[in-house]
User: What shape does this take?
Amino acid sequence: MSPIKEAVARFSVGLPVFFLPFTVLAAQPVVPAPVVSPVSLGGMLQVLLGLGLVLAAVAGSAWLLRRFSPGQIGAGGAVKVIGGVALGPKERLVLVEIGETWLVLGVAPGQVNALHTLAKPEGGAFAAEVPSGKGEHNFSAWLKQAMQGRKLG
Assistant: This one.
């Protein structure tokens, strides 16, 4: 046999033997692994309960801060807003009680001006007409009446 024919014979015998393991591996049926969901009912329940607990803690903290805020404790009830009325989008007229004095204040962005000072009424018709913080409508009616009385007198 010639050397070329001998090499071709060896190659033709050796080549299928070389690829035989690969064909056996490819021929085996592939069984897919069962798919397990990463999310379980217990895990979702735990996350939702944790979220609810955190939201309840935030709401409770906000309620406690509003209930026991340092601004109300420090003032000692010396300053009391009797009423107010909006004059524009950013301007308000506010009636404030400080001790035995009432102040009519003009409030605008960046400034507060004392417009008028009144003695706290001790009773009578004037005190009955002034609202005790029950709404802006009563205060605006009182203010309108007070302005008309001021023009007449």
About this structure: Strands lie at 79-86, 92-98, 101-108, 111-119.
